[in-house]
């Protein structure tokens, strides 16, 4: 649980430390200084928190809260007037625990934390405020708090998922005014594994009627599915991958597709209903997360920029992906066609 003391500390001291985080390289190292002896978590902690400006001119607050005994660093991107008066954000007008018409798009980054520092879902899109959370892990891995990357294994997935749930329910209402019934989720690679394997089955019923975008990664549920009937018939799930995906994910993504399709069928949805809610695409002829067929970071940004068109009732056409739409029904398309496995520069043990 979040303590009153920790909440007061992060809202007062964290919000007053100005300066945007430095850009990090893909391997997780910050710029400047000798960081060879530091863990990725220690390197991240050295980067300043505080207040900066989002790409749309709105405000980004970068701060930390203690949730369930672990420190969760997170960023919120919102118009200044939607931040609560507890945050000391200039222009903040909202009362703590007050609602607004804005929803949230909560992103869990891939292994190493690149998308936390890039914050691809910043700015307000489709009426959603951007939120990104840093994994409470020495190597910045969602679902694995200690030790080096270990591929699909996410032994702390349940604990991390509960912490994310509690951050949204208990902490964010003290930070920003939003509609708690309009919370979407995005997972990137390792973050997508934790979302699909643990968060969705355990907690998605509490956020029903919205959607989850799984980029370049997915796991079948690793814990029991709770109250499936509450979310499986009204919540959008989109699986986005590429032709030359990592070998381990070429197996786990189709397994996850089948698993969630089976949950829907078990709840009484027919094929047409399932296909409207659960969609998949791996059109890009490129590697892991390279949806624009150019690069990891730019590929993720492409999908993040098209979130509303994919997840909020759009036609799924993404300029940069050579397909009329990415919103292909999972029904009959569970067995994705990938390129022949070959040696890759990026190890399957580090999913990014």
Automatic annotation (TrEMBL):
InterPro entries in the record: AB_hydrolase_fold
Renumbered to this chain, region (Disordered) spans 20-50
Q: Which UniProt keywords apply?
A: Signal
State whether keyword Lipid biosynthesis applies. Answer: no
Residue spans of biased composition, Low complexity class: 24-49
Give the top-rank taxon of the lineage listed in the UniProt record for this protein: Eukaryota
Q: Which residues form the signal peptide?
A: 1-19
What protein does this entry describe?
Answer: Cyclin-like f-box protein
What is the species listed in this Swiss-Prot or TrEMBL entry?
Cercophora newfieldiana
Specify the taxonomic lineage: Eukaryota, Fungi, Dikarya, Ascomycota, Pezizomycotina
